[in-house]
């Protein structure tokens, strides 16, 4: 289902180009999910490790073409080997799935340890200033996607709760015949200054924060905060 609703996009182009700046890089794809970008990085000549806590996602990743070139690990940032990577990435808003401040701080420190000196970290988060969750309602999000076997599934998203820092929401899936499934998630939203400071506090130097997938500056772009930092 995830692969059908989340095909290759401009975010993948951005991260692939960024990793390609280090030819033959040892890459950590943290929160690799079903491995869309992970296998593409390996195909581009990088030495790639994909880590994710979800066994179901890893199972989908392992059967992708070229998956045998990737080292797959079920776990989180603390499962990564130390001083082993030139580049670490978190794509698909993985950083925001790490909900508490303690967990986020721990993840950043573990990534710092996993990188070699001068190794690069790149990840993205929705900018809370973009109020992206205001568009997460059935009216604005309802669409149809086709599974590989041709089954057409109607999907939509709705917000189910908010706190100062988190937004909870449900993805709904309606199959032909009426069966429905629901997937509940929460994302942590931090302001740009707070996000920057957390990265600096973990020992990184910030290279840049882009606002969109074409490198747009403050006040424009796709409502994203794309952070590129160095150990
Ligand atoms: C929206 S998916 C993104 C997957 C993939 N990076 C992509 O771009 O398609 C978010 C992923 O974050 C993973 N995740 C959730 N909590 C995590 C954690 N603490 N550490 C690492 N990954 C986590 C989930 O299992 C899920 O695969």
Features:
231 residues, alpha/beta, globular, binds S-adenosylmethionine
List the helices and strands and how they pair.
Elements: H1 2-5, H2 10-20, E1 26-30, H3 36-43, E2 47-52, H4 55-62, E3 71-74, E4 85-90, H5 94-97, H6 101-114, E5 115-126, H7 138-141, E6 143-146, E7 152-162, E8 166-174, E9 180-188, H8 192-201, E10 205-210, E11 224-230
Parallel strand pairs: 1-2, 1-4, 2-3, 4-5
Antiparallel strand pairs: 5-11, 6-7, 7-8, 8-9, 10-11
Residues 6, 30-33, 36-37, 52-54, 57, 76-77, 91-94, 97-98 line the site of S-adenosylmethionine.
Task: Tell me the β content.
Answer: 25-35%
Principal-axes geometry comes out as globular
> Which ions and ligands are bound to the chains?
S-adenosylmethionine
Main β-sheet, spatial strand arrangement: 3-2-1-4-5-11-10
End-to-end separation: 36 Å
String of helices and strands: HHEHEHEEHHEHEEEEHEE
Radius of gyration: 18 Å
Give average pLDDT, whole number.
Answer: 96
Segments where pLDDT lies below 50 for 5+ residues? none
Structural class: alpha/beta
Number of E strands: 11
Largest sheet: 7 strands, mixed
Q: In which range does the helix fraction lie?
A: 25-40%
Instruction: Please give the count of helices.
Output: 8
């Amino acid at each position: 289902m995830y692969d059908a609703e989340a095909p290759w996009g401009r975010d993948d182009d951005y991260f692939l180009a960024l990793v390609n700046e280090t030819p033959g890089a040892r890459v950590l794809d943290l929160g690799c999910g079903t491995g869309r970008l992970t296998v593409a990085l390996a195909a581009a000549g990088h030495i790639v490790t994909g880590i994710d806590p979800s066994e179901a996602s890893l199972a989908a990743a392992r059967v992708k073409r070229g998956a045998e070139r990737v080292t797959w690990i079920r776990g989180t940032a603390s499962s990564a080997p130390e001083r082993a990577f030139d580049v670490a990435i978190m794509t698909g808003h993985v950083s925001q799935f790490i909900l508490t401040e303690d967990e986020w701080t721990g993840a950043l420190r573990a990534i710092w340890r996993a990188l070699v000196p001068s190794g690069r970290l790149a990840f993205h988060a929705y900018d809370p200033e973009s109020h992206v969750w205001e568009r997460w309602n059935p009216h604005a999000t309802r669409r149809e996607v086709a599974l590989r076997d041709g089954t057409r599934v109607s999907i939509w998203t709705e917000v189910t709760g908010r706190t100062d820092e988190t937004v909870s929401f449900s993805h709904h899936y309606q199959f032909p015949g009426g069966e429905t499934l629901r997937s509940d998630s929460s994302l942590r939203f931090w302001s740009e200054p707070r996000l920057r400071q957390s990265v600096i506090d973990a020992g990184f130097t910030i290279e840049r924060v882009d606002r969109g997938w074409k490198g747009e500056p403050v006040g424009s772009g796709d409502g994203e905060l794309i952070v590129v930092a160095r150990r």
